[in-house]
Specification:
This protein is mostly helical. The chain is built from eleven helices and no strands.
Length: 230
Amino acid sequence: MPNIATNPLPGYQLALQQLTDSALPTGAFAHSLGFETYIDRGLVRDEESFGVWLGAFISQPLTYSDGLAIRFLYEGWAVGHLDALLSAQLLPRQVREASIKMGTRLIEIGSEVFPSAELELYRELVASGRAAGHQPLAFAVVARSLGVPLAEALAAYLFAAVTSLTQNAVRAIPLGQNAGQRLLRDASDGVAAAVVQIGHLAPDDFGAVSPGLEISQMRHERQRARMFMS
């Protein structure tokens, strides 16, 4: 039988759970990141069709944009440089603004709850207008300062994003709570595959996202009736 006294939790484990908890007030509940456009067009209408959209979102934006940004920061890329790259490659305005709104909120929370010299540097860059403050970078700065290994940080960030999107879909489509849990269980395989994929990508892959997803995200700006900000 494992001895809890001699096998304590890693020092970062509970902090990571707090950092990725859906109750963390970053405003994720207000963003669909484009799937509301698919609902409006009748393409996402039930558990199965949302699962298809979610799988594409995991394997594209979360892998080639957010996840790769996290990996590059862990590998030592300057946070200001990565911030500028994210601002440039997040073409849909609402999605770019969502990343910044959730990121600056996470920086604010992290500065109080998980302070570090690295996070203070990013906060100062944002406050002075030299950086925008994107969500994946804010998360990566905090996670790395806590000593979270890269693979665990990627899995936690990706699954937290999937959880927020699924909770929003449960309200918007609407879906039942059991359907939401089935979707999360199915999506876990996609998240695991994305973590592996991110480790094999090159700098030239950064931002390689399907134009169809980006166009739908842009169309959301002019959608007549909507529940979400993006």
